[in-house]
UniProtKB/TrEMBL annotation:
<dbReference type="GO" id="GO:0030655">
    <property type="term" value="P:beta-lactam antibiotic catabolic process"/>
</dbReference>
<dbReference type="GO" id="GO:0008800">
    <property type="term" value="F:beta-lactamase activity"/>
</dbReference>
<dbReference type="InterPro" id="IPR045155">
    <property type="entry name" value="Beta-lactam_cat"/>
</dbReference>
<protein>
    <recommendedName>
        <fullName>Beta-lactamase class A catalytic domain-containing protein</fullName>
    </recommendedName>
</protein>
<dbReference type="Pfam" id="PF13354">
    <property type="entry name" value="Beta-lactamase2"/>
</dbReference>
<dbReference type="InterPro" id="IPR012338">
    <property type="entry name" value="Beta-lactam/transpept-like"/>
</dbReference>
<feature type="domain" description="Beta-lactamase class A catalytic">
    <location>
        <begin position="42"/>
        <end position="182"/>
    </location>
</feature>
Length: 384
C-alpha cells in the first residue's frame, strides 16, 4: 500500500525511483480507534533497514529529554525539579561550563525544563549537550537498553570532542529559588567504551575539515546511532504511553508527558517561551513533514504535528505524530533521506532546500490526504 502511494504521486516518485541513491526509509503508521477510543496501530514500511546507517543528528534529543525527566523523578526527594537552576562545571578536556545565574525571568534560567524546551522548539545543540552530561554516557545508553532499545548508541555531544572526551561528563549542581544547593552530581566517566552494532561505517567520497579536503570517506563508526524504527517507537511511547508494555515505558509522570507533548507540538512563537518570540524563528522552523520548513508556510489551526527532526551531513529526517481534529484523522509518519549529490561530507553543499525538504513536505501532504479519505469505523481521535 505505501509503495503504491509513493509511486502514485509525480513529485514523490522523482525521489522514490532513486530510493537507493537517497537512502530513503519511511514508516507510515495508521491509527484506528475502537469503540472505547483506544488506538490500534498498523505499520507500513518502505525500505526500512536498521543496518542502513544514517546520521540521526537531533533525533537523539527526544530520548535524551525523556530520560532527563526520568532522572529528575529519582531526585525528587532532594527537591530537584525541571525548574531548578542547573549549573555545569568542568572536569576534563572539551568540557565547557555554565555558571550559576539567578534571574527573575524563569524563561532565561539554565534548567532541565528550559533545556528541553530549547531542544524541542528549535533543536538547540548546546541544550542537548547539557542533558547528555546530566545523564552520563553509560547510564543514558544502559537505560535505553533496559527499555528495549539495545542497538541505540547516544555517545556524542554536538561539539568537536573526540570519542574519549565524550565518555567524560561534567559535574552538575542544582539550586533552589534562594540560591541554596539542593543536589550535587560528581563528574562521571564511562570506564568501558560501547561497541557499535554496525561495525565500521564510512560515508561519502571525501570530507572537509575547515578549508582542507580529505580525499577519503567520512568515518561514522563511533557516531550516534538511532534506527528509524527505534525513534518512531520512542515518539509513540511519549504520545501513547498506555499502548506501550509497562517494562518498555518511560518512567514519567502525567505532567512529564504533557510537558513533552506540548513542546513537541508547539512552534517557537506559539509556545509562550520568551527567547523564541523573535523573527529569527518561524512557525515551520522544525516542521519538515507537511510544511517543508518554509518560512512563509501558513499553519492550519486544526492540524497538529508532534515531532522531532534531524538535519546533518546531508541527512534529513522527521519523525511525527500528525492529527487533525476537524478531519477526525491521526497517523504517524517517519522519514529519512540523504541529499548529498557531490558525496563530500562537511562541505555545506547539500540539497536540503531543493530536494529533501520539498520531498518531506509533499510526503506529509500526500499521506494526510490519503488519511482523511481512508474509511474508519470510529472517527474519534486523540486530543492533546
Amino acid at each position: 500500500m505505501l509503495d503504491s502511494l509513493l509511486h502514485s504521486d509525480t513529485q514523490l516518485a522523482l525521489v522514490v525511483r532513486q530510493a537507493a541513491q537517497y537512502e530513503l526509509q519511511i514508516i507510515y503508521t495508521q491509527i484506528d480507534r475502537d469503540e472505547k477510543n483506544q488506538p490500534h496501530f498498523t505499520q507500513h514500511n518502505f525500505r526500512l533497514d536498521a543496518r542502513q546507517y544514517f546520521d540521526p543528528a537531533s533525533l537523539v534529543k527526544l530520548p535524551t529529554a525523556a530520560l532527563a525527566l526520568e532522572k529528575l523523578n529519582k531526585l525528587r526527594n532532594y527537591g530537584v525539579t525541571r525548574r531548578c537552576v542547573m549549573a555545569t562545571g568542568v572536569a576534563y578536556r572539551c568540557q565547557t561550563p555554565v555558571a550559576y545565574v539567578a534571574t527573575a525571568d524563569s524563561d532565561y534560567q539554565h534548567s532541565v525544563g528550559n533545556y528541553i524546551k530549547r531542544m524541542l522548539l528549535v533543536s538547540d545543540n548546546n541544550a542537548y549537550n547539557r542533558l547528555y552530561e546530566f545523564l552520563g554516557q553509560r547510564p543514558l545508553n544502559e537505560r535505553l537498553d533496559s527499555l528495549g532499545y539495545s542497538k541505540v548508541r547516544i555517545v556524542r555531544r554536538f561539539a568537536p570532542c573526540d570519542t574519549a572526551a565524550n565518555r567524560y561528563t561534567n559535574p552538575i549542581t542544582f539550586y533552589d529559588a534562594n540560591g541554596s544547593i539542593l543536589y550535587k552530581q560528581s563528574a562521571n566517566r564511562n570506564p568501558k567504551p560501547f561497541d557499535f552494532p554496525l561495525g565500521q561505517i564510512t560515508k561519502g567520497k571525501a570530507y572537509r575539515v575547515g578549508s582542507k579536503l580529505i580525499q577519503q570517506p567520512y568515518n561514522f563508526t563511533t557516531a550516534n546511532y538511532l534506527p528509524l524504527q527505534d525513534i518512531t517507537d520512542m515518539l509513540k511511547a511519549v504520545m501513547f504511553p498506555a499502548s506501550i508494555a509497562e517494562a518498555n515505558r518511560f518512567n514519567l509522570t502525567s505532567s512529564d508527558y504533557q510537558f513533552l507533548q506540548y513542546y513537541l507540538h508547539s512552534t517557537p512563537h506559539s509556545s509562550g517561551f520568551e527567547p523564541y518570540h523573535s523573527k529569527a524563528y518561524f512557525d515551520a522552523y522544525k516542521k519538515y513533514l507537511y510544511y517543508g520548513r518554509r518560512q512563509q508556510a501558513i499553519s492550519k489551526p486544526d492540524l497538529k504535528i508532534y515531532n522531532i527532526v534531524g538535519m546533518s551531513h546531508g541527512y534529513l529526517a522527521d519523525v511525527a505524530y500528525i492529527t487533525d481534529s476537524t478531519q477526525h484523522t491521526e497517523f504517524m509518519l517517519s522519514c529519512v533521506l540523504y541529499v548529498n549529490k557531490d558525496g563530500i561530507i562537511n562541505d555545506g553543499s547539500y540539497e536540503y532546500t531543493t530536494v529533501g525538504l520539498p520531498f518531506l513536505e509533499r510526503l506529509g501532504k500526500v499521506v494526510y490526504d490519503y488519511e482523511i479519505n481512508r474509511p474508519k469505523v470510529y472517527t474519534t481521535s486523540q486530543q492533546n
